[in-house]
């Protein structure tokens, strides 16, 4: 099968991160609809959405978050960079660069009015509500809900774990808790308000990755005493920071599982520094409990491991109840 060479990818000035062609751009490069079909069959082209394609080789090398970004940018390009409304919910979270976990890659648009067309692309979800000026911003030259509005929308529509990961990251990037509190107060009687309040009550910018957020949720659900997050510890070798630490018991909890699912792969230099850090702390009497991704879905086993570490590290005999949160009297 004779397959034409693909044209060079040219950056769009309005969206310099775009790495795709529109059907019109391929036609300008001399590729007919038949040529496009041949290239797809041959595994040279990957269809992003109707009328938009990228190199299949490039697609294979892209991380999931970068693939999702290309699909959003292709949608925006099809609308001339001026969607009828603002990108919101999970789409806004992706454009803001927030971490997402198990969130469907639908395109979310919030509009102040219902469009005349009753049907649209299958991957687009439209939401109809007015957005105030302070709830809007521009990201990559596109209208997007602010970090604060994005957290509220995601908390109202996603599961608790997915929403808290987004909220923690947004808080680290500077989302204003007072603004989010005001937005939640204005939601009285609105569907999802209880979920929003729960997420806002539990968010913590000190959780520095999705895995750390899920670890914190697991600890809360087991009833164990909450450790300090990002605990600084002094040793003769220097200052070291722990993901979680029970300082009095000298028990450290570290989460090592984000490498598989997110872009946190450590370099050899980082691994060496990690070994030095752990050695220095162990010489000071610290005990380490390390969690991987699979451990987050075995709460009983994690509770047992942490409880045993706290029990063994205690300087004086204590009962297991001493490492649990006190239960309110009935």
What does this entry show, briefly?
This protein has 330 residues and is of the alpha+beta class. 41% of the residues lie in helices and 18% in strands.
Describe this structure in words.
It is a single chain. This protein is α+β, with helices and mostly antiparallel strands and 330 residues long. The chain has 3 domains: 1-62, no CATH class; 83-202, no CATH class; 210-323, Endonuclease, Chain A. Helix content is 41%, strand content 18%. It is built from 13 helices and 12 strands. The strands form 4 sheets. It has a 4-stranded mixed β-sheet with strand order 9-10-11-12. A 3-stranded antiparallel β-sheet has the order 1-3-2. It is globular, with a radius of gyration of 24 Å. The N and C termini lie far apart (77 Å).
Task: Break the fold down into its secondary structure elements and pairings.
Elements lengths: L20 E2 H6 L4 H9 L3 E5 L2 E4 H6 L2 H15 L7 E2 L1 H7 L11 E5 L12 E5 L7 E4 L2 E4 L1 H11 L2 H13 L4 H9 L7 H10 L7 H13 L5 E8 L2 E9 L4 E5 L2 H4 L6 H16 L3 E5 L7 H15 L17
Parallel strand pairs: 5-6, 11-12
Antiparallel strand pairs: 1-3, 2-3, 4-5, 7-8, 9-10, 10-11
